[in-house]
């Protein structure tokens, strides 16, 4: 009789175990593969699939390589009641660990988004983001129902170098281009034209001299006025000289005859 009772009890327990549904919740990232360049910011979402079990509390412990990635922010999806105690709420970029914990009122048995993690790629390489075994998803009895952790792979490339074209130089003077040399001995030239021609023929050293005087604190307008006066005086003298050179030969002959008559007298 005792043996029969033991066998019956064992069969009953076995039947109870078989008839009890096996709930298994999972954590996952979306997207699971990301390609970025160094210095770029990207995000990944954490999802919980309760697979029919009613769960109420979730803690996601996310590990990442701190030398390649930096976690900069986390935002919870609406509907979660955030638990902000230090051991349940952490972003540690020295050790590459993020912990976020929250509860869901009345629980859920389908797929829910826990929140979004924002990362910045620090350098090129391949980084793997994982939820660790310290992650928890509790049912009403306080049982951890996680059977599968989340994982994502991040590929970070070197940033593309943009080649900035160098500024092209000034085009060289070609045949037919304006020249800085202008005739100054034309008879029809006015005094203003002569002054302009003289100014065009003065070397750039004049500009250097003006800049030099400016270094001594002399106002720029004073220097400019002095230079203009010098140019006018020099231009007027040059214009008079050019008129003398272009005098009519007949006038020279008359002047010569008058000079001869005066000598004879």
What is the fold-level CATH name, i.e. the topology of the largest domain?
A: Immunoglobulin-like
Rough shape?
Answer: rod-shaped
Give the CATH class of the largest domain.
Mainly Beta
**Considering DSSP H and I runs of 4 or more, what fraction of the residues is helical?**
25-40%
Structural class: alpha+beta
The pLDDT mean sits at 75
Distance between the termini: 181 Å
Low-confidence blocks of residues: 1-21, 172-187
* Main β sheet profile: 8 strands, mixed
How much is the radius of gyration in Å? 47 Å
Element pattern in H and E: HEEEEEEEEEEEEEHHHH
Fraction in beta strands: 25-35%
Helix tally? 5
CATH architecture of the largest domain: Sandwich
How many E strands?
A: 13
Number of domains: 2
Task: Please provide a written account of the structure.
- With 265 residues, this protein is α+β, with helices and mostly antiparallel strands.
- 31% of the residues lie in helices and 34% in strands.
- The protein is built from five helices and 13 strands.
- It has helices at 2-19, 191-201, 205-214, 220-245, 249-264, and strands at 25-30, 33-37, 41-49, 55-63, 69-76, 80-83, 89-92, 97-108, 111-121, 125-131, 136-139, 146-148, 151-157.
- The longest helix is centred in the C-terminal third of the chain and has 26 residues, at 220-245.
- Mean pLDDT is 75; it is low at 1-21 and 172-187.
């Amino acid at each position: 009789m005792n043996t029969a009772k033991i066998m019956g009890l064992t069969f009953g327990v076995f039947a109870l175990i078989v008839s009890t549904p096996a709930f298994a919740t999972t954590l996952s990232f979306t997207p699971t593969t990301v390609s970025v360049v160094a210095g770029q910011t990207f995000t990944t979402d954490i999802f919980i699939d309760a697979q029919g079990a009613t769960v109420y509390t979730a803690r996601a412990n996310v590990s990442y390589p701190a030398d390649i990635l930096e976690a900069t922010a986390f935002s919870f999806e609406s509907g979660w009641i955030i638990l902000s105690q230090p051991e349940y709420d952490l972003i540690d970029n020295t050790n590459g660990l993020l912990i976020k914990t929250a509860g869901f009122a009345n629980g859920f048995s389908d797929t829910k988004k826990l929140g979004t993690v924002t990362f910045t790629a620090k350098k090129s390489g391949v980084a793997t983001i994982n939820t660790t075994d310290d992650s928890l998803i509790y049912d009403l009895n306080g049982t951890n129902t996680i059977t599968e952790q989340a994982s994502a792979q991040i590929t970070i490339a070197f940033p593309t170098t943009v080649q900035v074209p160098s500024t092209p130089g000034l085009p060289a003077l070609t045949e037919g281009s304006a020249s800085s040399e202008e005739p100054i001995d034309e008879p029809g030239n006015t005094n203003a034209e002569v002054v302009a021609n003289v100014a065009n023929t003065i070397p750039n050293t004049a500009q250097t001299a003006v800049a030099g005087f400016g270094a001594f604190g002399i106002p720029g307008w004073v220097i400019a006025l002095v230079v203009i006066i010098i140019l006018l005086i020099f231009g007027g003298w040059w214009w008079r000289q050019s008129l003398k050179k272009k005098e009519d030969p007949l006038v020279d002959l008359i002047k010569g005859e008058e000079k001869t008559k005066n000598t004879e007298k």
